[in-house]
Amino acid sequence: MNTIIVGAGMSGLTAAILLAKKGEPVTVLEKNSQAGKKILATGNGRCNIANRKILPEYYSGDKQIIDLVMSDYSLQNDIDFLFDLGIPTTDDGSDRLYPQSFSALSVRDLFYNAAVSEGVNFIFDTEVEDIQKDGEKYLINQKYTCDKLILACGGKAQADYAEGMFDILENFGISHTPLLPALTSLKTKDVPYIMKGVRAECSVCIFVDGKFIEKVSGEVQFNEKNVSGIPIMNISHIAAQSLNEAKKAHLIIDKLPFEETENIIRFCENMKRKYPDTPAKYLLSGYLNNKLFHDELRILGIKPDTPIKNIKSFEPLVKMIKNMKLDIHATGDFDNAQVMCGGIPCSEINKNLELKKLPNVFVLGEMLDVTGECGGYNLTFCRQTAFTMLKNQN
Ligand SMILES: Cc1cc2nc3c(=O)[nH]c(=O)nc-3n(C[C@H](O)[C@H](O)[C@H](O)COP(=O)(O)OP(=O)(O)OC[C@H]3O[C@@H](n4cnc5c(N)ncnc54)[C@H](O)[C@@H]3O)c2cc1C
Predict the structure, then answer these.
(1) CB-based contacts of 86: which residues, under 8 Å, 6+ apart?
(2) Which of 338, 361, 370 for a ligand 1 pocket mutation test, highest count of atoms within 8 Å of Cβ?
(3) Domains of the chain
(4) Which site from 180, 225, 240, 365 is most exposed, i.e. has the minimal number of CB atoms within 10 Å?
């Protein structure tokens, strides 16, 4: 059975290696002039390739696909697979795993090297624009014939990508959920100018149409017209989907997440007793950058140099710092996103990731309606889709 794989990213390369190891003739068609271009950009060039803590809850999208692909994921098998390609892994002091080289280039090169060594044939600068069903076979671009076709075309994030393969699949009656940017920043007009460029450990709750959806925490970066940072990226798909459905999204940011409101109020009262002439702008600067409570002081009519002995109650100030509201009017676009949310849903595929309407055509990686959080979850999912396809083959 000869196989064509469309796309030489993490999922296509993994599938190519696994099939070639089984002795199947495999050709990869790739529109770029090289394999794994996106791998090169991962983890700021260091490639956060996996995570010690891989759990379904770190993925969003189609729950059935998440279960299908990730339920029997084995970290040890994954580490062994990578090691077998010549990629020993290590962590960065957290649960995130990287190649020992901390080089995304080495990951790309060694995946490609393994595929070539196993006999995979790569044809670059070839964009698949046409797929025809030809009896039991498939005819690609009127030129290449195969028995089995694997679509591993990735998503629209930071890719030179039109709707491409999703349009081709639509012609076969195969639907997909809306394709939206994820792992991206959130645009808002509500960040005070003075906070521009400040980073702080915060907790962030996202609400859709007033309803609480999720709480995340970590370092948030406040920018002039958006907020970014890992916790923001990890909830950006929620904002993207709700805005796409014309719903309203807002964030409540706690800029002092480590202390209860009462404790901070007590702290302020102590300061007032001990150092009554302290200017208001220094009141909480032992806790957080004073640019982060400058605007709250302004709204409460307290000048930065007002001695704290003149502040009657600290409660309104502390409550505002712990409940900063930002209305979200857009997400970052695909150029700013690390992944795409949305894609082919479970209703279109069998348990071996074969399209129900196109026998012997399989969909892998980011084309499926699954999005992982930051932390190596997306590359892991991509590899695991190739393993799932093979495991559930017969
Ligand atoms: C800046 C950035 C940093 C990231 N960092 C991390 C990280 O550290 N850890 C992590 O887990 N994830 C990370 N991700 C996400 C991760 O890179 C992707 O989820 C993953 O690479 C997707 O792999 P894929 O095989 O599905 O698709 P891709 O890697 O996008 O590969 C698809 C391939 O298909 C080709 N193609 C598309 N259409 C056609 C066509 N019609 N004909 C021929 N070829 C076609 C494309 O050119 C491409 O080479 C990051 C993403 C970005 C953008």
Answers:
(1) 110, 113, 114
(2) 338
(3) 3-180+340-391 (3.50.50.60), 185-332 (no CATH)
(4) 225
28 near 115, Cβ under 8 Å?
Answer: yes
Contact 187, 337 (CB under 8 A): no
pLDDT tens track for 111-158: 999 999 999 999 999 999 999 999 999 999 999 999 999 999 999 998
Q: How far is CA 155 from CA 49, 270, 292, in A?
A: 18, 54, 36
Report how far ligand 1's centroid is from the alpha carbon of 75 (Å): 21
- Band of the pLDDT at 393, cuts 50, 70, 90? confident
CB of 149 closer than 6 A to ligand 1?
no
Pocket test for ligand 1, best of 336, 379, 389 (most atoms within 8 A of CB): 379
CA distance from start to end of the chain: 14
User: For residues 336, 346, 164 and 131, what is the CA-based torsion angle, rounded to 10 degrees?
Assistant: 160
CA angle 41/183/232 to nearest 5° reads: 125
Rounded to an integer, what distance in angstroms lies between the CA atom of residue 1 and that of residue 17? 15
Residues present in the chain in total: 394
Percentage of the residues of the chain whose pLDDT score is greater than 70: 99
- Could you tell me if the CB of 96 is within 6 A of ligand 1? no
pLDDT the model gives residue 113: 98
User: 346 CB under 6 A from ligand 1?
Assistant: no
What pLDDT does residue 317 have? Answer: 98
